[in-house]
Amino acid sequence: MNSEAHPFYQKFSLNLISIAILCVALIYGGDLFMPLLCSVLLATLLLPVTNFLLRKKIPKVLSIIIPLLLSIILGAGIIYLLSAQVISFMEDLPALKERFNEVGLSFQKWFRESTDMTIRKQNVYVKQAVDNLKEKAPQIAGVTVGSITGILTYLFLLPIYTFLILYYRSLIKKFLVSIFKNGSEDNVREILTQSTTISQQFITGLMIETVIVFTLNTIGFLILGIQYAVFLALLAALLNLIPYVGMLTANILCMTITLVTSNSTSDVLWVGAILAVVQILDNNVMMPLIVGNKVRINALVTIIGVLIGGMLCGIPGMFLAIPTIAVIKVICDKVNDLKPWGELLGDGIPNESSTKRKIAKKVV
């Protein structure tokens, strides 16, 4: 039946139902889908290397295992670097705790002078907050154990899924093309090709961008002479992978740690200034130059998508939000009934005067 025969409200309702089904599937099947989606991204990133090795007459299994092992070694190196910095930070916790108490006391005195609230009354409120936190400690511990279990699951399943996706990629592509027997096979192939290109360009650009952000942060923090410069720079660069929300979190954490570890309050402001300058360069120079114009998603959809991804699947969902939306936009742009959704996701703002002329022509 021709899709034009269906009324608008029916097509719109089916679209909303499809979105709701996907959200429910992600909520209850996140432990299954998130490692699988991350593996698809990693497989897409490794695909050019695998194809290069295949052209050199290297066996298929080795052509997959070699880049996969290299990526595992690279990931292990990043984890080791971060772990070494975290261990160094944890060793200084007793001194940091004492410094934190000094800063807290100074803040209490300032707050008392500003609001006339006595330090004793402030301590009562702090004690109540600590007691509430203690009541939730078992729940927090359960979440922590669940997070550690999830990380171990990712580390175990990610290379297995990636290997199998690369090994059976021809079969998967053939299946996706074969299920469309209504003359849309060429369109499906084009969607798969564009989705692969966008994912490769996005992930590769994101990795290069992360290295540059880490380097700039490190140089700025070392010039400033603050403690844990490399740790804070790496933390900010990794959090920057999460659009908007991650950089805000990085600013708060880095400035708080600097406040506790530094004797000068101006260092805190300089840390915020360095992160702000790097973020401005990242958003206006590095991101457009490195990632390019392939991922053309407007800022509103990006923020909403990241927040929804976090609500549905946590941090992995926030990280996967942008490439997922980019792929969805490719699909919407290629399907006539979904083109309005593709325009909504894109960053192109229609010219108001040209829109009025089009409406006037239709009226005439």
Architecture blueprint of SSEs:
Elements: H1 8-55, H2 60-91, H3 93-115, H4 119-135, H5 137-167, H6 169-178, H7 185-224, H8 229-239, H9 245-261, H10 265-291, H11 299-334, H12 339-345, H13 352-363
Helix pairs in contact: 1-2, 1-5, 1-7, 1-11, 2-5, 2-8, 6-7, 7-8, 7-10, 7-11, 8-9, 9-10, 11-12
What key phrases describe this protein's structure?
364 residues, disordered C terminus, 13 helices, mainly alpha
In words, what does this structure look like?
This protein has 364 residues and is mostly helical. It has 13 helices and no strands.
In short:
With 364 residues, this protein is mainly α.
- Biggest sheet overview: none
Principal-axis shape: globular
Count of discrete alpha- or pi-helical segments spanning 4 or more residues: 13
Sheet/helix structural class: mainly alpha
